[in-house]
């Protein structure tokens, strides 16, 4: 996935808004006024932060080297995902959807 793929996927979710509240280099996606994904536009490789259930967050970090504690975020609830080709696009979309659902309170 690239920046545009992630952007399009986020915007497909119900009620999503995009903005740049932290400056022109950080694209933010919100639902119900709450952030569910942040993505830096200048990084190589591409990285983004998503919210995650705390137990699952730890499990993902132990399983995938591309999953790190959330950069500049509450590390209990957020992961930074490095889009380096080691994780399938299907999993990336799943993690984005999980974050959206957690923030939107959809179960």
From TrEMBL:
Species for this entry: Niabella soli DSM 19437
Tell me the superkingdom of the source.
Bacteria
The cross-references to InterPro entries, in alphabetical order and at most eight, read: YjbR, YjbR-like_sf, YjbR/MT2646/Rv2570-like
Q: What is this protein called?
A: MmcQ-like protein
């Amino acid at each position: 996935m690239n920046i545009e793929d992630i952007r399009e996927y986020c915007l497909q979710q119900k009620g999503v808004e995009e903005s740049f509240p932290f400056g022109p280099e950080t694209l933010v996606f919100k639902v119900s006024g709450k952030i569910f994904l942040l993505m830096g536009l200048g990084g190589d490789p591409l990285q983004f932060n998503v919210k995650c259930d705390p137990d699952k967050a730890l499990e993902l970090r132990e399983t995938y080297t591309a999953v790190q504690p959330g950069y500049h975020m509450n590390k209990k609830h957020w992961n930074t995902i490095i889009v380096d080709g080691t994780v399938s696009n299907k999993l990336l979309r799943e993690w984005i959807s999980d974050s959206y659902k957690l923030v939107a309170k959809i179960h």
